[in-house]
Design a protein that fits this description.
With 454 residues, the chain is mostly helical. The chain contains 24 helices and two strands. Among the domains are: 53-192, no CATH class; 203-324, Tetratricopeptide repeat domain (Serine Threonine Protein Phosphatase 5, Tetratricopeptide repeat), CATH 1.25.40.10.
Length: 454
Amino acid sequence: MIMPEIVPDARIPWTKFIPTVPQFAEKEVGRPLKPSEVSTFWSNRAKQFMYEHPGKILALTYKKLVYFFSGFENSDQMDIYDFRQYSGLLSVLIFDKGLKFPFGLFAPLALIGIGLTYRRWRPMTPLLLFIVGYIPSVILFLVTARHRLAVIPIFLLFAAYTVFWLWDAIKQGGLSKAGIPAAILVLLLVIANINFFDLGFRSVPQIHHNLGLSHMRQGDYQAAIDEFNLALKEAPSSPAIYVSIGGAYIKMGRSQDAIAPLNRAVTLDPNYTDAYVNLGLAYFDVGDMDRAEMAFRRAAALDPERIEPYLNLGEMYMARNDLNLAKQNFLKALDLQPENNVIYAKLGVLYGRAGDTVSAAVHFQRALQINPRYAPAYLNWGNICLVSGDTNLAMEKYYAAIETDSTLLEPYFNLAVLFLRVGDTAMARDNVNTLLRIKPDYAKGLELKRRLGN
């Protein structure tokens, strides 16, 4: 999937990589393009390449033809064979031990079956039309295991026909009757199970890195770090792995430990935006605001279209109580993403901190118009109301936050504080108990329960 006009970067998530395709087209044309116009732009590029390099097109098409009929399961980013270790069923259903099972077996069988049924082509026409129509559509674009998956059910029918035909032929006349199809089958089996054009290359660092990212998504950060360290042994100069290690430490609340690997990442790649964003977060967490500011500003300079550096700078200035600079950075982020509910909610907090409860309410309302399920907006709106003395509205917003996300801790705690403030210790105790059922070791909740007594 390499496009010479766009530098591929494995560190960039698909959500950020995909927009580079229309952006390049619009830059070349010099105006905004509709999706159909973007498609036409790249189609014309492909046609131009085909016209100017017919030899290369033939060579590439042949290479992809081999890819399609190879027994090896050519995946996108994950190594399919590596997942055998996590599933007893998968370890039986797929393997690469000389014979590349299953495609390396049933693809040759299917091709023989198609040849054996040539005299019965009329009833076979729907199946053959699908094969003839579908396979070129894959070969012209991208050949991976998941893209050729659609032909497998039909290939299995022809493969089964071959097995029964050979069995009947051997029973009736021995190997001599099955000779030519059997010989061709053996040849196809050999060809389908050879790794041509570096098929079968395994990236061990990528395997461990992807597993680490999977553990990260599940919240098992120590397991993630273990996998990242295994990846690092194989690829000690990969900045992406160092960034992942730093990110895991930050998630664990060990931001001090995150600083060293993140600094190593920016040393290896001084233009790595993610590294600077995470480095800024680590410094922010440990209270080193000057270094945090430098990291966030460097990230913003490297990628001015990215909102995270501005949001983080806004949060940092809020922590410094420099509300003017915080507002400037939140508004920069809002210019980039005018329909981002999180930014409106942060501006709501900022205006509330400044004592402008009317503007705070306007921005919280806008955040919830964009995303009515955004519980932090209700929570922070309630906090502003509580500070300003409007306990009834604060209570309403806290209950709305709980209704939206019952796993949040802060609304229960704040309701307990609110009820304690108005003298309703029973309701305060109920909210503390609910809070501690969700998180029994929540320190502030335990302290408040101690104050409330039994």
